[in-house]
Fold:
Amino acid sequence: MIRAYKFLLRPTVRQAQALSEMLQDHCSLYNGALQERRDAWRHVSKTSVRYGMQSAQLKEVRAFDPERQGRWSFSSQQATLRRLDRAFAAFFRRVKSGDAPGYPRFRGVNRFDTVDFPKDGDGCRWDSTPHEAVTRVRLQGVGHVKVNRHRAVRGRVKTVSVKRECRKWFVVLTAEQEQPQPLPTTGSMVGIDLGIANFLADSGGAFVPNPRHGRRAAVKLQAAQQTLSRFPRCKAKDRTANHQRAVEKVARLHGKVRRRRLDHAHKTALDLVRRHDVIAHEDLKIRNMNTAPAPKPDPDRAGAFLPNGATAKAGLNRSIADAGWGVFLRILHAKAESAGREVIAVDPRNTSRACPHCGHTAKENRPTQETFHCVVCGHHAHADTVAATNVLRAGLVRRHANTA
Structure:
């Protein structure tokens, strides 16, 4: 089992400068490799350059530019080239499937924030001493950097990554562990329904309120982004001190919202995993739910369009993004796997329109957003609770079918 750990780094001023230079040089390597692939395709009879060819050129690149490329880890530079290769693989996969291709783009220095070390001990070394007062990680070209290790790392460290978030630096470890002992069984099964008014409703009638972190921070974010918009767009090296402070303030506010959203998702998922053996949820296609409505041309007026509800849909999309359903479901699946719990995804169609008593399915069963009232048997309940009950039943049916 592979588990990730993320710790805050505490570099000195000189080490922080070296870390920034490491990101800049890896970004330059990434962009140079991308330019080589573009030129080979355009000017050399549509020749494809692959990772193996570019990796073989690394020795020459390091010898030609020892000040910028020669001082960093060879394996970390190979990882940067692999990142570009994965970007091209995803591009060709999207082309083949008919999706929007999204050709790989050049990275600005402020948009290249991670350097990967594929193996602990090759260009980096994690201090695995369990009871040391100060933990450090050694990075080639940077030195021994202090780490705020707030919890123990279990298992053998496989990879090490250095990541920049605003002005903070983090180290991300992946460790290989034995399968943990499952939590004691509770005999409880639950279905959950994700929503906007309430973040979560379960089949037992309980609700988890939606914290709406993005909406609560909207006023401060709007003010910070208005201040930032007064500065002309330019490269990071050309920014004034006031411009840089405005950029960092926007990034800091977004980071705060993100951390609060993650904290809420972790705590909610952990509570579900501790209390229930089986958890069923809707298999939501969140990306499809966030698409903008198609425009409606006016047949009577050339170049004019009819109202299509785009404004209301934009507000709904913001609320869906603010709720963070996708992040929550990924965390729930990861925690359930570690705890030995079972998570089942079911088809979400008609879960809030089908009566759990008589089975009648109709749009009229849900007269309002919160109310469920069956037009056949008269069953009355909260619509989200009804949906969670139907999700649980569908999940148990699927579970028994898989067992059989």
